[in-house]
User: Which sequence fits this backbone?
């Protein structure tokens, strides 16, 4: 995709997007609603027309090709199985349109149903199977036509949490098994980080960062990415040389080119730890616990530092010793941190 | 009625009945009583004329006797079989034209020209607001031409399509709204379907019940239409029945034919709703 642009009246939903998918990889587009991620998918599928830019698949320009001729398999957010057809007929529908003989298409449809584990349901109608199963059939239907690119438009958002996690892993397994190039759109960062080869974080019609999940999380390219992916503490700091001083801790900078001066440092809650016994007492990072949220293996502890609050993600074994109102001293692990100059979200650390 | 019910219940109401549960039970019982009364009154209101009409159509020469004479006359009474045939043909033609015209148009508007929805709805509902007599005055010159070329009474279907438009529109619109047509269409297109396939193999089969309803409403309207046929001088069923009722000493045939046409409509309704259910069950 090159310089892809889409406007709705005065609103620019997609603003000159450049994105290249490598064969066989799964890219997750992540962003808040209205950031243009679904628009990107729909432009790729041919369900909407681009105002500018071009889409090329395997060297062929498909920008102005109708949806029906694009060879893209798509799974939608809403349940989209054809209600008057059985599961098997749904999966075989695309093959029928390609005039594959009945015996062949039924055999192929059954193979794909086996891949998604739904051969037992082949004779059922959409309303006779669960939501998760419906989305699996939709996935099978999209895969049956052996598309060049698989497009998944928030396919899990209508499902409950447990089914969502199962299906998420299943999608990844199938994607790797089939080796199909996939674009997955979601607003759920956990989903994106869990299954993608690369995650693209979008904002206001533009791609803020495109990188492997670990990199997006640990070395976010912009303050927006840092805040959108995972929780972030914003603490005032002072840059001097290659470090930033935040409440008595000297932390290395992600971007060494940051000019000296006051900044806002973006610090992950898991980089905030309990201070060692000797440091306990007072200090710039000591305060009163105001809330403890149990998350399972870890707990999120919110501490009032007097002029601001800070969140720390601690092992639950450590957190159980604390209670709301107790006094605690913290320290910050010296991981490279991202800073935003003053508070205006301008990007201090550009590319990582 | 409500007062009587609550009076009747008072002795049964123990201390527990005074609690919220007891009150709820009493309210439910009162509501049920109200439902039965309304249902009975309404049933009598609908059934009494039908029963009377049926009884009258079976009246013998002497008062109080029974006879099938009026029913036998339906097929032989001068002008009547022709009127019945014309009306049935009109019902079939109008229904088919209506569905062929409306189903693709409405799907197309839903999928491709959404901005036109309101205007289209307004146009389709317009015939409801125009009295039949005004329609006839407007259409008279057109039908004068048609009669001039001695075209058959089947030409009435043009105006019947217009008349049935609001009913067919409502039936089809509710069917179309009940499915996520846009997503289904997008799914089909991404699988390689052209617009023709989307309309006739993906969307239309899922609004089968609505199409049957539109057919039924259109056919019923044609079966019962009187004003326009009468004023444009076509002998369809209703004008024929009217003229028989004015001229014949044995009015029984009017009633037997009316009952027969009603029964026909009921049977049609039953068949269509049965077919719809079968379809849904798959």
Assistant:
């Amino acid at each position: 995709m090159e310089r892809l642009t889409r406007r709705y009246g005065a609103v620019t939903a997609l603003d000159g997007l450049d994105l290249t998918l490598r064969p066989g990889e799964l890219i997750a587009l992540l962003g808040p609603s209205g950031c243009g991620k679904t628009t990107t998918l729909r432009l790729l599928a041919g369900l909407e027309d681009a105002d500018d830019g071009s889409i090329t698949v395997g060297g062929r320009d498909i920008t102005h090709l109708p949806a029906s001729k694009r060879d893209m398999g798509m799974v939608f957010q809403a349940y989209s199985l054809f209600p008057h057809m059985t599961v098997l007929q749904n999966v075989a529908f695309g093959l029928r349109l390609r005039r594959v003989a009945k015996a062949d298409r039924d055999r192929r449809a059954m193979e794909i149903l086996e891949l998604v584990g739904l051969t037992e349901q082949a004779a059922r109608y959409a309303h006779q199977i669960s939501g998760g199963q419906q989305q699996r059939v939709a996935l099978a239907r999209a895969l049956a036509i052996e598309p060049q690119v698989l497009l998944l438009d928030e396919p899990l958002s209508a499902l409950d949490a447990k089914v969502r996690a199962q299906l998420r892993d299943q999608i990844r397994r199938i994607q790797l098994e089939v080796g199909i190039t996939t674009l997955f759109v979601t607003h759920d960062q956990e989903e994106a980080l869990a299954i993608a080869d690369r995650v693209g974080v979008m904002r206001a019609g533009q791609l803020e960062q495109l990188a492997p999940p670990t990199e997006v999380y640990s070395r976010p390219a912009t303050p927006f990415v840092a805040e959108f992916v995972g929780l972030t503490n914003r603490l005032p700091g002072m840059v001097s040389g290659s470090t930033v001083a935040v409440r008595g801790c000297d932390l290395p900078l992600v971007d060494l080119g940051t000019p000296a001066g006051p900044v806002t440092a973006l610090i992950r809650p898991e980089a905030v730890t309990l201070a060692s016994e000797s440091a306990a007492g007072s200090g710039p990072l000591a305060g009163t616990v105001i809330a403890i949220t149990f998350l399972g293996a870890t707990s999120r502890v919110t501490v009032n530092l007097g002029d601001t609050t800070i969140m720390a993600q601690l092992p639950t074994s450590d957190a159980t010793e604390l209670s709301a109102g107790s006094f605690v001293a913290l320290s910050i692990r010296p991981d490279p941190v991202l800073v935003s100059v003053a508070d205006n979200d301008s990007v201090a650390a550009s590319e990582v | 009625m409500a007062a009587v019910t609550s009076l009747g219940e008072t002795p049964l109401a123990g201390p527990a009945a005074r609690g919220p549960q007891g009150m709820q039970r009493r309210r439910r019982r009162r509501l049920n009583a109200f439902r039965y009364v309304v249902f009975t009154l309404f049933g009598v209101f609908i059934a009494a004329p039908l029963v009377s009409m049926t009884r009258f159509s079976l009246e013998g020469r002497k008062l109080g006797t029974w006879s099938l004479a009026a029913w036998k006359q339906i097929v032989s009474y001068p002008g009547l079989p022709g009127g019945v045939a014309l009306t049935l043909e009109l019902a079939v033609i109008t229904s088919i034209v209506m569905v062929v015209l409306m189903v693709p148009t409405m799907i197309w508007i839903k999928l491709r020209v959404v901005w036109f929805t309101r205007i289209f709805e307004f146009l389709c509902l317009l015939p409801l607001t125009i009295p039949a007599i005004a329609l006839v005055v407007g259409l008279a010159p057109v039908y004068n031409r048609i009669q001039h070329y001695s075209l058959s009474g089947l030409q009435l279907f043009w105006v019947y399509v217009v008349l049935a438009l609001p009913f067919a529109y409502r039936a089809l619109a509710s069917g179309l709204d009940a499915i996520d047509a846009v997503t289904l269409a997008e799914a089909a297109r991404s699988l390689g379907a052209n617009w023709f396939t989307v309309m006739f193999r993906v969307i239309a089969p899922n609004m089968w019940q609505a199409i049957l309803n539109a057919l039924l409403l259109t056919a019923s309207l044609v079966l019962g239409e009187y004003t326009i046929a009468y004023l444009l001088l076509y002998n369809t069923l209703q004008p024929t029945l009217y003229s028989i009722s004015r001229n014949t000493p044995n009015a029984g045939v009017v009633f037997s034919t009316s009952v027969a046409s009603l029964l026909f409509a009921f049977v049609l309704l039953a068949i269509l709703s049965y077919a719809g259910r079968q379809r849904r069950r798959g």
Q: What stands out?
A: Chain B touches chain A through 19 residues (CB under 8 Å). The mean pLDDT of chain B is 84. Residues 72 and 187 of chain B are 57 Å apart (CA to CA).
